[in-house]
Every structure is written in structure tokens, then in C-alpha cells.
Amino acid sequence: MLPAIILLAIWMIVPLALTIWYSFQNYNLQIPPPEWGGLINYEFLLTDPDLPRVLKNTLVLVFAPIGVTVVLGTLLALLYDGPFPGRPIARLLVIAPFFVMPTVAALVWKNLILHPVWGLVSWLMKSVGLAPIDWFSTYPMTAIVIIVSWIWTPFTTLILLTSLQSLDREQLEAARMDGARSLATFRYVVLPHLYRPISVVVMLETIFFLAIYAEIYVTTQGGPGTETTNIPFYIFSRALQGFDVGLASAGGLLAVILANIVAFFFIRAIAKQL
Amino acid sequence: MSATKKKRQKLLRAIVGWLVALIMFFPVFWMALAAFKTEQDAAALPPLLFFHPTLENFAEMSERVGYLRHAWNSISVSFISTIFALLLAAPAAYVMAFHGTNRTRAVMLWMLSIRFMPAVGVLIPIYLILVSVRLLDTTFALTVIIGLSNLPLVVWMLYSYFKEVPSEILEAARMDGARPLTQLRYLLVPLTAPGIASTALLSIILAWNESFWAINITATDAGTLALAIASFANSEGLFWAKLSAASLASVAPILIFGWIMQRQLVRGLTFGAVK
Amino acid sequence: MRFWKFMATTAVGVVVGLGAAQAETTLTIATVNNPDMVVMQKYSAEYEAEKGVKLNWLVLDENTLRQRVTTDIATNGGQFDIITIGAYETPIWGKAGWLVPFDDLPADYDAEDMLPTVRDALSYEGKLYSVPFYAESAMTFYRKDLFEKAGLTMPDQPTWQQIADFAAKLDDKDNDIHGICVRGLPGWGENLALVGLMANVFGGVQFDMDWHSAVNSDNWKEAVQFYVDLANNYGPPGVVGNGFNENLALMSEGKCAMWNDATVAAGFLFDPKRSKVADKLGLAQMPIEKWNKGGAWLWAWALGVPSSSQQVDEAKAFIEWATSKGYIDMIGEKEGWVTIPPGTRKSTYENQNYLDAAPFAKPTLAAIENASLVDNTMEPKPYAGINFPLIPEMQAINNYLGQQVAAALTGKMSVSDALDDAAANADRVLQKAGYYK
Known about the structure:
Number of strands of chain A: 2
Helix content of chain A: over 70%
Order of helices and strands of chain B: HHHHHHHHHHHHH
Strand content of chain B: under 5%
Structural class of chain B: mainly alpha
Radius of gyration of chain A: 23 Å
Oligomer: heterotrimer
Largest sheet of chain A: 2 strands, antiparallel
Structural class of chain A: mainly alpha
Number of domains of chain B: 2
Radius of gyration of chain B: 23 Å
Distance between the termini of chain B: 30 Å
Distance between the termini of chain A: 25 Å
Number of domains of chain A: 2
Strand order of the largest sheet of chain A: 1-2
Number of helices of chain B: 13
Helix content of chain B: over 70%
Shape of chain A: globular
Number of helices of chain A: 13
CATH class of the largest domain in chain A: Mainly Alpha
Shape of chain B: flat
CATH topology of the largest domain in chain A: MetI-like fold
Largest sheet of chain B: none
CATH architecture of the largest domain in chain A: Orthogonal Bundle
Number of strands of chain B: 0
Order of helices and strands of chain A: HEEHHHHHHHHHHHH
CATH superfamily of the largest domain in chain A: MetI-like
CATH architecture of the largest domain in chain B: Orthogonal Bundle
């Protein structure tokens, strides 16, 4: 029992300790060796004029896809709850995106679907006489939210669908008998039943969406300007494009602090449900 | 409700249901199609739905990166890292679920929040450690790192399943003198098997799709399919067909696995927290 | 407990495997997924058979490769025996002592045959630290047929203003032909590669003599405004997503009337198998404007050996093979002369087979020979380099600048604001690096 917990604790603490150590070093990978830098990385980070924008983008990239996936997921779950011919196969098709690697998903969307010249969407728009949209420069954030939501809506659907199927059919029938209209049934019977699984979905998605980076790396590289730079990508660009290890570590700590704040306000509110 | 209305409703549901399914699946389908096109056909305008299929992209892929080795690495890393994470997580989740204090929840949230720390923030320290213990480009290192990074999630999921088990059952076992490991092995694991299965599946999927560590700490020996993709992204000249082939070859195994296992995935998720 | 046994066996297996692998010579080579390197990988089987060595290949896209190799070499990781690096990394890493110098090239390799400007770009303090596999400069590609139809003539040395005028006349959106294709994809090796050149000939420098960023100067703003107008008025939709590859696809599909880009593109564009415009292309030098130097870059993809390699001699032997005259001849005969790795050796440009097959050979040579890393801007500057400064902080600074230029291109910011922000960021980065207080 104990060894496992100790190992767990080590894993939690060692990277954190290393990150704290490096966040006080002035260390550019291309100019060795590391030197003690004091607070220089924190100073640079906290006075970065882009920081507010980056924080905002991080939150947008958490909440927008959560909103989309929960709403769409609920609708799709209701849709696939009822029987129709070929439903099992249609369901398999719907959940497929969840198994696709984020990198692959982003590459496919960027090059084959949304590309303003070769992409299928552009071709469709052109063939109905509309001007094709250059998604990643005109609506870069929307485009990334679309990709992320495409990957995660199946996950939401799957969970909510399962939950719906455990809903007491007799209760539903009773509500119908009482003459409740379908909207009212949804509001007073179905939705309360889904409250808990939605909390779970929101919590899990918060974890994953706070760490979104592959989709940004493949498509917009955080741009144009800083329009789609979130914290993970900001750190990535400083660490593996600028090779500033100290700054990247300070950014990593900032990410953990932010995550804790979100956890405190947000997850706690719904964690009571769990 | 009249029979005709019911019928009409069913028809409507079928139409919308299939339409949505096809739209959701379309990008995967389109990618799969492009994988069998020549580069010229893949870039053709208007897009081609009918064309002479070719296997040359797959031939080129296996020539350049060695598909089977990467696929084997993906399989072993995702399965072993999952086993590893489960073995570590189960005792921790047990302690938290049955000997928890009022701080347990806070610890759990903190643990989950560590997962938010972007991996790139610790890349250089971890790389330096791996250099000094000579474990760069080994499936062992990749397995341990991926296993550990999925650990918080696995602990949390197991915790929520264990919580569901009535403590009286454990109490009785304890009376009979069962030690914690025995309780875990003979009581909790069988009782929460569906939950454990779905946790394992989720962890396998996440490990399979993990690309950051695969790209940054492996090279020619331990590279997974996620690394193979990077050989085909964004090269000089046309590359969409080759990229699609590499993507399809990397996604297909986990997709088929996921499809087969979807019932288990769902059953577990509903067993615990999602009920 | 079976699991632990398994893990232990795996670990032992890995260690034993490493030991066994070292018994025969195995070289690990990291390279970029460009077609010339893919060809090299294909033909290296012959080298393996002949020399009895085994080559393990890691082929990655350019950005991933750069991250991967930099991480490894900076931490002395020793993962690679041969790495593919560019004219940017070589002098910086040579200075850091991370690369093995090539000061003992054998006589039959004929090091004197290497083009001097390329050789200099891959040297630090007179020592060669990587050997060029292929090298490039930049030139203007244009469609002779469209120019003829419009009654226009491209001068051998155009100015940007002339290019803009031509683009205005040739732009034909109805027929899906765009006046000009330009790089818009953000990144120091993408949009800034071009914008850096434009800034030079518009009289700009990237840093003044005190290392303060000068991208907010009037000359830079004028250059970027010109670039933005040119791309938005006469470029294809989605310019900001187009890098070298995308433009190459557009040009070879016949969708651009003009394109100013890397000389290596000629190898594709003049190849009828890969290009629809192979018989319609004209060539000119890169445009100039107020100033006549620094209008074309110099870049080389080169092979180097990290100091951490345990098999320096074997690694060097492979590199000498892959960059030899014999290799170039072999590719010429087996794959076609148009597709040989260009820009590295004088003898390539004396080979009649190549000159016959490649109408772009002479202009490429001229562009490479004229490109100089120093003394190329109107005002004095403290750094070496043409379209980017050769300093370790360059990637952090220029990727940011590239994003700001992209923001200006999409109209999210004004040119002036975008460049002011970029200049402020550059000053902050250099201040942090200790260039000044």
C-alpha cells in the first residue's frame, strides 16, 4: 500500500520541484550553462503585455468547447436514445472522432476540410456561390474550437447516452401519461437525471482543455498575432521555439496555479455532485 | 399517440440520426479516402470522390518509418502503461476512499491540477534525467512517463468507483482478518470490474494518442505511431495523400479497438460516477 | 508481481539490446522529410551494403526535427550520430562546441569544389562544422505565357514596385489566377524569410548598433505595408496559411502569375511530372527597391556530427558519401538530373547533363554566389545574416515578429501597431538575455 502512495507522491512532487528550480535559472538551451537568475523569469512573464490575452484565450479554449460539447452531446444523446434502423452503426460512426489523435484530427481539418483553396468546405461554399472563408486567419479561435469539439462531442454523447438509458422508463411513461409535453419532460425529468454525468464530463473536459496544445501547434501556431495562444502553447513556444528553459518553467508554474484556481472555483462547485 | 405519428417520428429520427452520424464521421472518411489517392488526386479541384485507388502511400510509409515497429511500440506502450498506472493507482485510491480524511478531496483536486502542467514545462529536466540514466529512446521510459501522467486521472476514477462500494462489505472482510491488499484483490476489484475496465480503456486511448513525449524522448527504437505521423506532416512538395495514409494507419488500430470495446467503456462509466 | 517481472525483463532486454546493437556499426541519423532527403534515405541502402554499416533513420518535419535535435544536442543526449541542420544552427552550435569540425576532409572529396558562400555560411571562425547537402538562394519565378499575353516583360532585375504593377495587371480572379503568391504562414523560416528580404531592400535593419529592435522603423513599416497590400490585393485567399509548400503547390498547379521564393523550388516547377507549368516558366532575380543588397537569402541544409556521437569517423564517412560528387552523379543518372541536390558544388554547375536539363542552374548559381551574410543592409548592423540575425535568441524574436506580421496581414492589427509590439518584445528578450540593462 505505502510504496504506491510514496511513488505517487514522488511523481507529483519531483517534476514540480524541478520546475521550481529551473524557474529561478536564467537558462537558454542554446547558450549554456544555466545561471542563477533570481526572479528574472517571473518578472519577464508577469510583465509580458501578452499575458492577459493568453489567460483569456486559455479560458475561452476551456469554456467554449465545454459549452459546445455539452449542448451538442445532450442533443445527440437524446437523438440516439430512441430506436431507428441502423442505430448501432450510426452510433459507431458518431463516436469515431474520439479515437482520433489530436494531431491527426487537426491536420485533417486544416488541410483537407477547412483549407481555403483545397479544403472541401471551401469547395462546397464556392459551388453554391459563396466566397470561401479562410478559417485559420479570419476565425482562428472558432476553427480550433470546432476541431476540439469534434473530438470531444462523441465522448460527451457516449456518457450522456449511457446515462439516459439507465433512466427509469416507467418514470418517463408516467410523466407522459400525466400529459407533460416533451419539453417539460425534458426539463423536469431528463435534465435532472443528466446533471451528474454532465458534471463529470465538465470536470474531465476541464482537465483536458486546459492542456490543449497539439491542435494549436498544427494549425495556427498561436496566431495570427496572439489570437490563439493559450498557456500551454505560450510555454511551448518559449521552451521549444525560443529554448528559454527558465521562462518555460515559470510558465509551467503559472499554469499549475491557474489550474488550482479553476479547480477551486469551478470544479469544487460541481465536485459536490460527484 | 397515433401509430402513423410514431412511425413518422421514427423516420425523422432515422434521417437526422444518420445525417449527423455521417457528418461526424466524414473527416475520418475523407482522410481514409485520401490515403488511397495519388498526391495529384488528393490535391485535385473539385475534390475527387471516384478515383483509381493506389497503395503507394502505404508502401512509402513503411519504407520510410517501419510501420510494424511503430505499431508494436504503440500497442505495448499503451497497454503496459495502463497496467502500470492501474497497479499504482489502486492502492492509492483504496486509501483515499476508505481511510480518507476531509483533506482527501483537496489532495485529489490538487493531483488532478498537476496534470494541467504542460508537459513541455518539464521536458528539459526529464530529458536530462533520462540522459543520465541512459533511458532515452526506450519503450521503458516512455511507458513509465505516459503511465505516470495518466495516473492522476486513473486514481480519481478508481476512487469514485471504490466510493460506491458499501463500506459494510469491507468492514465484514476486515472482521474476518482480510488485509488491505486482500480486500482490494478479492473484493474491490471484482466488485468494480466494469469501472476498472472503462478506466483502463480510457487510459489506453489516451496513451495511444499521446504525442508530446513520444516525439520528444524517442527516436528510432521506441517511437510510436504518433512519432511516425511527424515524418509526413508538412514536407516540401505535395504531402496530403502520404499524410492521410500515415494518419489512417495510425488511427485505424485504436479506432477498431475502441469500436469493439465501446460497450465496456460505457458500462464502466455508468457504473460509478455517471450513474 | 508478474508485471514487475515483465518490466524488469523489458529493462534488461533494452540494455542488452543496446549492447548488441553496438557490436556492428549502427549510425542513427536525424533528418528532415524533404524530398531530397527521402531520396537519400532510399539510396543509402547501397551504402549500407557496401560499407557494412546499419543506418537508423529518424525522419521528421522541419519544426519537429529542429526541436528534437536542439534538445538532444544541448543536453548532450547523444541520440544521434548524424544530424540535419541548417545555416542557422551550424555557426551557433559550432561556437558552443557541440559539433565535430570537418577539418580533415579527404583529398578525393575535393572540399575546394564547395561553393564559397555556402561554405562560409556553415563555418565558424574559419572551420567547417557541417557539410552542405543542398543549398538555396531565392529568385523570382514568373509565367512567361501570362506575361506574353498581357504584353509585359519581366526585367532581369525587377523592383518590388514593378512586381506589384505586374501583379495588378495579371491578377485574374475569375480564372483562378492570382497576380502573385507570397509566403504568409507565420514563422521565422516562412513569412519572415521573405519579409526580412523586403525589409533589407526597403532600407531597413532588424537591430540597430545598440541591439535595439529596429522593426518599428519607418523603412520596416513601409516594407511590411507593401507586403501586406501586395498579398491582400493580388494574392490567393488564405495567404496567411501559405508557406513554401503551399505556394509550391499553387504555383505548380498554375494558380500564380509570379512567385518569389527559394531556388530549390525550380527543381519541382521545371519537372513535368510534378508541375503543370514546367514549360511556361521564366526566371528573374529577386526584386530590389531603395537598396540593392540583401534581396535574396542564403540557406543550406547540411549534415553534421554532434560531439556526443561515439562513432565520429563512421558518421563522417557517411556524410562524405552523401555529399560527394559521386552521389550527385548517381542521383542525376537514376532519378533525373533536374532533381539532384543543388547549390553545393561548383562541379555541379560545370556538368553539361545538369545544365541541359535544368534551365534554372545558372541563375541559381548566380544567386547563391551573390548572397553575402555580412555588409548587406543600407544602414550598419551588429549581426551577421541576411533575412534573420544569426543569434541564439533569433527564433524567439522572429517567430513572434512573424506572428505580428501575420496579424497585420489578416487585418487584425495595423502594420504600425504590430511592428511596435514586435519591437517591444524583441527588446524584452534581448534585455533578459543580457544584451543591455
